[in-house]
């Protein structure tokens, strides 16, 4: 509870949390405000925002309601962000934990594997994944998760390396704890704070990566994601810029809120900042 | 009486809101005279370090000297601004810190760092400065001053670094030298040299030294006058002889009573039966390097053999790097050994693994040095004590009952099981560590410097608890320490280690009273305050007979 109090003491964290809650609210109420398929044709194409009260944020070039796509897109973007972050964290933590705990040849093999992933640009790897396995939303989410784990693994490994020789771990060993128990029940809770903080970075890059894919028309075209909306708007960018700009702002705010929350968590967990 | 150099009048230092108490230093008045060493003694949190920081104008943010004055040369230092303070620091008041490694800049040579003192405060030429640096290094009895001036801090030993710090502090011949625990991070033999050096320089130059320490042995060696602080208050001050031998304040009396005497207790009758026998144990570390000539093999433990009698307490003493902790970790199987046998009740456990090892290893448990690092900060202490027995196959309910009994045994409230480690003090944590080790009902308890991180009064309590438990449970104890006073109190046998080898072993009283190895003699000579044996005000640890 003390941590929560520290967390909310920082204005950065408060702004971030409010923004994030707002986006979650939008995602949850999408079906209530805009029932039905957001991708259906709703009216005359390319209506400017705030002109027609039926389409507050206007319509795109196919005549679809931008507000409806925005609300439903929030859900998709959040799910993409959360699930692929979860995948990246699980893979990264397991590999990093094993690598840091055992060291020796196991560490060598796992770290070479991690480096192999790291030397390739994430996005290129993601493109290859989508090109090979297709671009349904599930594949996109898994692919983003799979290309994002190497930094998590390195971070976890570094924490484990410094924690595994602590006396409380040695004490655990002498009272007969198994390696798995030592790794996941004793060391991991102590290694997790920096990883949780880093999760906010992965969350924002995951949302950005999906948008970038969609911009290149490589994401799942059958769902209403913000990236798809930006990508479609590209064709009419010079005259009807609002089609790309509105979801663009939504992406900006989501990424911003995630990193503000991450920053807040970091500050709350950092004992050196707490003293001030 | 000599000239008054510094006069602290009714000084009060206020802590920021939310700290555990309001004043770090409460209404303290002190005078420091030329040509004396004034020792400020106190336990951690007594405010002694903040007092010295206040003199140097180095109080941390949020901490302020709210009342009183610090008179130096007729001026109140508390009214000085940063600019004025800078002229005082170094030139008029020098300071030596506890850890010379962090106080020196790792990227500059020793000579360069000392010469900075002159370039900042004087207008001497480069050549004159270089000469001064060399003569200073000679003054602090640095071996080979010319090469040391060109060396970087990491190339020197701890003792040499502290000499360099002292040379730097004394460069401009300040009237006052403040030394904040200058020997705490050093080995005893090095500590003895540094203390002798400070005393020698002080009497030659007539400097007024303010010496801050928690160690009464050091005080007995060096002090002219003593001031004792408790919880920010000055409780007693007077000449060394009076305070050491006839303390008037109860707190001083208690502190002095907690200093273990160097004479070993009465000989106990020891069981003949051998519970643990270590034969020719060796542990080496290799430095894997691509180039052959850089490869090194370090013998952390080198061909060590000893026997441990059931129910006895064996002390392993030595300075840092002597291999005593490595030896303990080999016996408890935290480290793989290269060679040798570890016979526990006539079974060689050196090469056992997995389930077989688990069966034996519960009989040998360990208490660790650092009470802050040895408990998992994210688990309730109750869980940490019960998990051992649960892993060895008893039910959770039984384990909790057992933990409650153990907590009572080590002098903690059984309600405390549901709390987290950060809610306990250092001494309490060490009790929890003891309870965790005892939960498995071990036959041998290995204690690795269990009291060296604790204040002297808490140290006495934990040692008392250990002796009491030893009697109550019939434990065999392997006690590792660098502190010969502590070893003298509770050990039946002593092993003296140096560079991985045993240089002497025998019955405690023999080793202490008639040491045969020259190294043991050196160690005993270096114990701070060895000439001072306070008469016991409280009999802390009566010798225990079986």
Automatic annotation (TrEMBL), chain A:
Chief place of localization: membrane
GO annotation, biological process: transmembrane transport
InterPro entries: BP-dependent_transpt_permease (IPR050366), MetI-like (IPR000515), MetI-like_sf (IPR035906)
Transmembrane stretches, start-end: 12-34, 78-102, 123-147, 195-216, 241-265
Membrane topology, from the record: Multi-pass membrane protein
Presence of the UniProt keyword Cell membrane in the record: yes
PANTHER family, per the entry: D,D-DIPEPTIDE TRANSPORT SYSTEM PERMEASE PROTEIN DDPC-RELATED, OLIGOPEPTIDE TRANSPORT SYSTEM PERMEASE PROTEIN APPC
Family: Belongs to the binding-protein-dependent transport system permease family.
Protein name: ABC transporter permease
Species of the source: Gilliamella apicola
TrEMBL record, chain B:
Swiss-Prot/TrEMBL catalytic activity: a dipeptide(out) + ATP + H2O = a dipeptide(in) + ADP + phosphate + H(+)
Residues covered by the ABC transporter domain: 6-256, 276-524
Enzyme class of the recorded protein, top EC level: translocase
CDD domains noted in UniProt: ABC_NikE_OppD_transporters
Cellular component GO terms, alphabetical: plasma membrane
Topology of this chain in the membrane: Peripheral membrane protein
Compartment(s) of residence: Cell inner membrane
Entries under Pfam families matching the protein: ABC_tran, oligo_HPY
GO molecular function: ATP binding; ATP hydrolysis activity
Gene3D superfamilies named in the record: P-loop containing nucleotide triphosphate hydrolases
GO biological process: peptide transport; transmembrane transport
PROSITE patterns: ABC_TRANSPORTER_1 (PS00211), ABC_TRANSPORTER_2 (PS50893)
EC number annotated for this UniProt entry: 7.4.2.9
InterPro entries linked: AAA+_ATPase (IPR003593), ABC_Ni/Peptide_Import (IPR050388), ABC_transporter-like_ATP-bd (IPR003439), ABC_transporter-like_CS (IPR017871), Oligopep_ABC_C (IPR013563), P-loop_NTPase (IPR027417)
Keywords: ATP-binding, Cell membrane, Membrane, Nucleotide-binding, Transport
UniProt superkingdom: Bacteria
UniProt similarity note: Belongs to the ABC transporter superfamily.
UniProt xrefs under PANTHER family: DIPEPTIDE TRANSPORT ATP-BINDING PROTEIN DPPD, OLIGOPEPTIDE TRANSPORT ATP-BINDING PROTEIN APPD
Designated name of the protein: ABC-type dipeptide transporter
Species per Swiss-Prot/TrEMBL record: Gilliamella apicola
């Amino acid at each position: 509870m003390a941590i929560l109090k520290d967390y909310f003491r920082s204005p950065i964290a408060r702004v971030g949390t409010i923004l994030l809650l707002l986006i979650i609210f939008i995602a949850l109420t999408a079906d209530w405000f805009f029932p039905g398929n957001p991708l259906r044709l709703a009216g005359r194409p390319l209506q400017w925002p705030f002109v027609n009260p039926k389409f507050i944020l206007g319509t795109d070039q196919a005549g679809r309601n931008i507000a409806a796509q925005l609300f439903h897109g929030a859900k998709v973007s959040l799910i993409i962000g959360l699930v692929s972050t979860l995948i990246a964290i699980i893979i990264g933590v397991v590999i990093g934990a094993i690598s840091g705990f055992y060291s020796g040849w196991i560490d060598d093999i796992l770290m070479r594997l991690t480096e192999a992933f790291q030397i390739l640009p994430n996005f290129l790897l993601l493109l290859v994944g989508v090109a090979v396995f297709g671009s349904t939303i599930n594949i996109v989410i898994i692919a983003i998760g799979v290309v994002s784990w190497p930094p998590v693994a390195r971070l976890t490994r570094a924490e484990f390396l410094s924690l595994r020789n602590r006396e409380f771990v040695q004490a655990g060993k002498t009272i007969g704890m198994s390696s798995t128990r030592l790794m996941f029940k004793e060391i991991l809770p102590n290694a997790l704070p920096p990883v949780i903080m880093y999760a906010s970075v992965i969350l924002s890059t995951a949302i950005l990566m999906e948008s970038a894919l969609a911009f290149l028309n490589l994401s799942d075209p059958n769902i209403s994601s913000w990236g798809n909306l930006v990508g479609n708007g590209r064709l009419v960018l010079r005259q009807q810029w609002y089609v790309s700009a509105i979801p663009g702002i939504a992406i900006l705010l989501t990424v911003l809120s995630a990193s503000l929350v991450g920053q807040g968590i970091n500050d709350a967990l950092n004992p050196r900042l707490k003293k001030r | 009486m000599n000239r008054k150099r510094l006069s602290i009048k009714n000084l009060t230092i206020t802590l920021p809101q939310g700290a555990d108490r309001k004043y770090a230093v409460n209404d303290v008045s002190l005078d420091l005279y030329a040509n004396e060493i004034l020792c400020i003694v106190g336990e951690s949190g007594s405010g002694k370090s903040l007092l010295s920081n206040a003199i140097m104008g180095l109080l941390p943010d949020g901490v302020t000297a709210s009342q009183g004055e610090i008179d130096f040369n007729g001026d109140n230092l508390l009214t000085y601004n940063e600019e004025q303070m800078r002229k005082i620091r170094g030139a008029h008041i020098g300071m030596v810190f506890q850890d010379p490694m962090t106080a020196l800049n790792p990227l500059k040579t020793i000579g360069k760092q000392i010469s900075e003192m002159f370039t900042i405060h004087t207008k001497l030429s480069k050549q004159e400065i270089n000469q001064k640096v060399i003569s200073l290094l000679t003054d602090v009895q640095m071996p080979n001053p010319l090469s040391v001036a060109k060396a970087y801090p990491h190339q020197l030993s701890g003792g040499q670094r502290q000499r360099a710090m002292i040379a730097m502090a004394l460069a401009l011949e300040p009237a006052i030298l403040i030394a904040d625990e200058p020997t705490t991070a050093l080995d005893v033999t090095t500590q003895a040299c540094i203390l002798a050096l400070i005393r020698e320089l002080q009497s030659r130059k007539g400097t007024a030294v303010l010496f801050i320490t928690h160690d009464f042995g050091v005080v007995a060696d060096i002090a002219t006058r003593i001031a004792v602080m408790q919880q920010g208050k000055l409780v007693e001050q007077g000449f060394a002889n009076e305070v050491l031998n006839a303390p008037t304040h109860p707190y001083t009396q208690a502190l002095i009573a907690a200093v273990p005497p160097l004479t070993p207790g009465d000989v106990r009758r020891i069981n003949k039966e051998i519970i643990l026998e270590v034969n020719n144990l060796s542990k080496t570390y290799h430095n894997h390097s691509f180039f052959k000539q850089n490869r090194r093999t370090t013998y952390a433990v080198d061909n060590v053999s000893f026997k441990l009698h059931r129910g006895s307490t064996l002390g392993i003493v030595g300075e840092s790097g002597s291999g005593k902790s490595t030896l303990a970790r080999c016996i408890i199987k935290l480290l793989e050994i290269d060679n040798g046998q570890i016979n526990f009740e006539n079974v060689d456990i050196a090469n056992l693994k997995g389930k077989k090892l688990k069966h034996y290893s519960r009989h040998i448990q360990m208490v660790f040095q650092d009470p802050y690092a040895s408990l998992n900060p994210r688990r309730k202490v109750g869980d940490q004590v019960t998990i051992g027995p649960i892993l060895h196959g008893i039910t959770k309910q039984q384990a909790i009952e057992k933990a409650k009994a153990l907590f009572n045994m080590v002098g903690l409230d059984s309600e405390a099981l549901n709390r987290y480690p950060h809610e306990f003090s250092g001494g309490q944590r060490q009790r929890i560590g003891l309870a965790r080790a005892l939960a498995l009902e071990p036959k041998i308890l290995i204690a690795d410097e269990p009291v060296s991180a604790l204040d002297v009064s808490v140290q006495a309590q934990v040692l008392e608890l250990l002796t009491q438990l030893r009697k109550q449970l019939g434990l065999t104890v392997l006690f590792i320490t660098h502190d010969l006073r502590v070893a003298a109190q509770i050990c039946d046998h002593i092993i003296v280690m140096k560079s991985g080898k045993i240089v002497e072993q025998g019955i405690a009283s023999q080793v202490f009273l008639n040491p045969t190895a020259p190294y043991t003699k050196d160690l005993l000579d270096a114990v701070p305050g060895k000439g001072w044996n306070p008469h016991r005000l409280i009999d802390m640890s009566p010798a225990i007979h079986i």
